[in-house]
UniProtKB/TrEMBL annotation:
InterPro entries: CheY-like_superfamily, Homeodomain-like_sf, HTH_AraC, Sig_transdc_resp-reg_receiver, Tscrpt_reg_AraC-type_HTH. The lineage of its organism: Bacteria, Bacillati, Bacillota, Bacilli, Bacillales. This is DNA-binding response regulator. The keyword Kinase does not apply. It comes from the Bacteria. Residues 6-123 form the Response regulatory domain. Keywords: DNA-binding, Phosphoprotein, Transcription, Transcription regulation. The modification 4-aspartylphosphate is found at D58. Pfam families: HTH_18, Response_reg. Residues 421-519 form the HTH araC/xylS-type domain.
Amino acid sequence: MSNYCRLLIVDDEALIRQGIKHYMNWEQEGFQIVGEASNGKEALELIAELQPHIVLTDLVMPIMDGEELTRQIKLKYPEIEVIVLSSFGDFDHVRSTFQSGVRDYILKPKLDTGHMLGVLKAVAEKIPSLQNEGHFASQGPTIDSVLEKLLSGYDMNDSQAEQELADHFPHSAFCLLGVDLRGRSMSKEQVNAIRQTMVDELDKQAQHADQLVYHVLKAEAPMIMLLLNLDYTMLSLLPYWGRTMASSIDQLKLDVAVVVSEPFSAITGLELSYKSSLLKMMDYAFYFPDRHLLLFHEFPESPEAAEPFNLNSFTESFKRERFDTAFEYLLEHLDTFKTNYTTDVFEFKSFLSNVIFNITVLLGNMNYSTQQLETKKYHYFKAIEESRNANAAAELLQDFIGEAKLCIAEKAEQSGNANMKRLLDYIHEHYAEPLNLTEMAKHFHFNPSYLSSYFSTHHNEGFVDYLHRVRLTKASELLRAGEASISEISGMVGYSDHSYFCKVFKKHTGLSPSRYRQQTLR
């Protein structure tokens, strides 16, 4: 292994990285692809760990480009050689990178086997550490590189590799164990702790089971993945091993789930098992947040797909301001939607974000004040995207609905206050007339019973009580003025019956009109 020339690939295009990795049998040519990165920043983090001899890097990349990466490498790791990948249009840029320490360059249109290999070998021959170890020689492929190719979907057309795999994995059945780390912010120490716990548990089982071999796999996606090779007679032990492993990982308190794929019978089925079993089950875990172990045969029967969300009906209810009906329908659909664990996670999250977007637009078009919703919706978009389970994502939508209801209520309150002011102003203008609820309702085109209820709901007293208070306040002013008789004042404030006026006045003030006048004129 020490005779390999270690190569790190840096390019922001995954297809370019994959193409180079599986370009040829690198080990046979004396090279080992030890890692890959999508930008210079990622590359620098990997260099300290992987200690490559050569870094093969693109020039134009986000976050940190190839030129800055080269400067950083030569500053921190002067013994590492850098080869630049570029297009014809970048040639002037390439020329300037030689000042930073680039050893050579390869034009992307010339990515053919002979040219690339020739450049790499020419650079490798100038690396002192490789010469001190004895020049790297042609060797067979490593188990890691063969498995990585199989996992990426490349055919294994190498009899030597086939034999090495057969020797390494002698048993009749295979299975994948995995822990999904996508969307999780974990330190390397935490990831290593999970991986080590899984390995330790399998080591314990291997001590009691001669027919068990395992191998830690490299995966493109952020995850930990182990390949198990065991005899068919031992498949019944998988649930027990999975529970033991999940229990040990739970003690780390990192809230992850162990996924056990469906077994397969040949190593050539690795890619299919990875994509059709393990990855799918990892996505299913999104809908089972309380499970820390997911076994291929323990999922409930897949429910029937929910009826498609009727956006037209939802929108129509909104436009008619039937908000309770619209939200009730939405939440009912959400409850059904999140129980279907076969729903694509991206589809589920997109639905929630689209609903938030549509609600905001609809309310804005209806002249509701949506400034806060417009600002907060981006927070909800990001939180939904980062949510790790369906319940958490659904709660975010429910929180947004709460915000939308506040927006709706605010306008309703403002509208209610405006309407109430119109009613009160009308009473103050017409209190001296034979005003009653029926006449007022007719003027404002209300149903009398609705007006009575509306008045009481939006004011601290009913219509009749408020009308009396307005009339009696005016009557008190006239009584204190002392110019008009009590009988005249009664008519002036809207009471046609003098006796009734006196009765109402005493009830509300505790004094008769005449007594009130006597006391105020002393």
